[in-house]
Amino acid sequence: RSSKFPRLWGMHNTGHTGGTQDKDIDGPEAWELSTGSKNVLGAVIDTGIDRNHEDLKANMWTNPGEIAGNGKDDDGNGFIDDVHGWDFANNDNNPYDDHSHGTHCAGTIGGVGNNGKGVAGVAWNVSMVGIKFLSGSGGGATSDAVKSVAYATKIGVNFTSNSWGGGGSSSSLKRVIEEAGKKGIGFIAAAGNHRGNNDARPSYPASYNLDNVIAVGAHGSTGTSASFSCYGKKSVDLFAPGVSTYSTVPGNKYASYSGTSMATPHVAGAYALVQSLHSE
Ligand code: CA
Ligand code: CA
């Protein structure tokens, strides 16, 4: 168990952070069944990932069909030397995180468990790929989001974790998520942080009415919904821990962030654990 595990109230809440006992995702109970599998591949579609982070490195995906640095698209997927994923913000093969948001999300999904370092993700073992479309300032174009989802589908991920939103409804984005769904790929999405009722005013991509979209709101350590979280009886599927979530940030560092962005990777990690039970 990780040295800083007690900080992770979202995994196992004993009331130690001033919250309420058992208002958590039942991490230890889940880990009795599975701690995950490298055979499960999840994409963090975000600002990129610091793939060399001490607590993520062992769970980062490498494209098995691609030879690094030979200037060729060895696996014929349309992307040259995409050994570690792709950066659609800068259109290159280095989806490094020049922000921190994506690395934080990755640590909650798949921070390496039981390694005596940092944090434990929900899935201690998993393969993760950073697909970057959000720039260092955190913004991005819907057209690049579409490309990111299509790329994830192409490389055969099991799920994508999507802690972003704010654009309007896009038929091309909806279509590419639907195509991912036809391949059995789950699309876990943040409900939004503007306190809105998504039933009344949809928040995309979380609000696309597709079977593979799981829309996630955030709750705090007392189990009540976070003040910032969007909600919606019909349009938000569940709430997960997303207040003062401690996780990885670039440069072998750690930090606490709050948002439905932090709730979403808790659900993505749980999705990875469920998938791992079917992937051995
Ligand atoms: Ca390629
Ligand atoms: Ca190559």
Can you walk through the features of this model?
By secondary structure, the protein is of the alpha/beta class. Helices cover 21% and strands 19% of the residues. It contains five helices and nine strands; from the N terminus they run αββαβαβαβββββα. The chain has helices at residues 27-33, 101-110, 142-155, 171-182, 260-276; strands at residues 36-46, 85-87, 125-132, 159-162, 186-190, 213-219, 238-241, 245-249, 253-257. Strands 2-3-1-4-5-6-7 form a seven-stranded parallel beta sheet, sandwiched between helices. Helix 3 packs parallel to helix 4. The protein is globular and about 55 Å long. Bound molecules: calcium ion (CA) (2 copies). One calcium ion binds next to loops. One calcium ion is lined by residues 66, 73, 75, 77, 79, 82.
Tell me which ligands are bound. Answer: calcium ion
Order of helices and strands: HEEHEHEHEEEEEH
Tally of strands: 9
Beta-strand residue fraction: 15-25%
Task: Provide the spatial order of strands within the biggest beta sheet.
Answer: 2-3-1-4-5-6-7
Average pLDDT for all residues? 96
- Approximate shape: globular
Find the structural class using helix and strand composition: alpha/beta
**Through-space gap between termini:** 23 Å
> Treating each run of at least 4 consecutive H or I residues as one helix, how many helices?
5
Approximate helicity band: 10-25%
Q: Which blocks of ≥5 consecutive residues have pLDDT under 50? A: none
What summary fits the major beta sheet?
7 strands, parallel
Report the radius of gyration as a whole number of Å. Answer: 17 Å
